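By convention, each integer encodes one residue's backbone shape. The lines below illustrate.
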Amino acid sequence: MSWAQTNLVSADVSPDDFIGLFDNPGLLLGIPLAIAGAVFMSLGAQYQSRGVRKVEAIAGLTGKKGLRASHLLKLFSRPSWVMGTLLLIAAIVCQLSALAIAPLIVVQPLGAVSLVVTTMVNAHYTGHMPTKASMTAVALCLGGIFVFVAFAALYAVESPLDETQLLVLLVILMIVLIGVAAAWLIFKTRAGALFYITGAGVLYGFVATLAKVIITRVQAGNFDFVTIACGIALAAAGIAGAYFVQTAYASGPPDLVIAGLTVVDPIIAVIIGATLLGEAARTPIWTVIIWTIAGGVAAVGVVLLAKRHPQVMSESQEHPIARGSTGTFDTRGDAGDR
């Protein structure tokens, strides 16, 4: 049995470890904090998306093939984008607070709540009301994630991390960053929203994991070179992920972006948390199978939403409603850009 497999199903856990919902009261506070962060995330995504689209409309530029420096600088002058950024900061605060008191594999998947809020808000602003097919896709995303969280809350374990685990994590992240950068250089001229969403989701999965690691080590008084290295790696992954997210907003509707992030991000974080960090050390094999099925269902929901999203279908058919607007998008000043 490999080291990762041993961490996944081993019963060799210290009696001092926190185990499951009934043995770790922090879960009772961590879960609502994570949900609050998800709501802030959904609102922030909507406002940032509006800012990106506004810059495109005013400057006559498109960011579908990757945002340029001119795009990024103009974003700071858009009130809606700045508001979205502040809301995302609030989401990060809630998320970090949740990670400080609850296991990663429980907290991270709850970001799926943001998908419902974003879908409704985006429908209001764009006039593209959800269809039966798109709502079915959203239901698959949410259903898969919540089944996963329900079982994760029963068996999640938090145990001390050693430096070997952290060094392995940093090496894996370095390889991922190189791979993502190479893929972007090769495919950026023809990459669509799903490419940027997937890339951002993978990177944010590592960001969440590193945040959990840093919080855990600081709480234990281990603020050393390895902790600092984790902080630098977190910043690098976060900046790259943020660029991919902003480009994704220029390539697709915000609820599609959120759908991808709330599935890809948790999948990566959960895989790392369950294997490398040992948070699933007391999880029965049958529960791991349920997790796998639930994650697959959520991923199918994202793919279906990408294909059947009403705004994507409308734009592909050259619908008269402008992309990211209600048909009366004002490019003069800040009208509609709040």
Observations:
- Confidence is low (pLDDT under 50) at residues 1-19, 315-336.
- The first helix runs from residue 3 to 9.
- The chain is about 75% helix and 0% strand.
- Residues 17-316 form one domain.
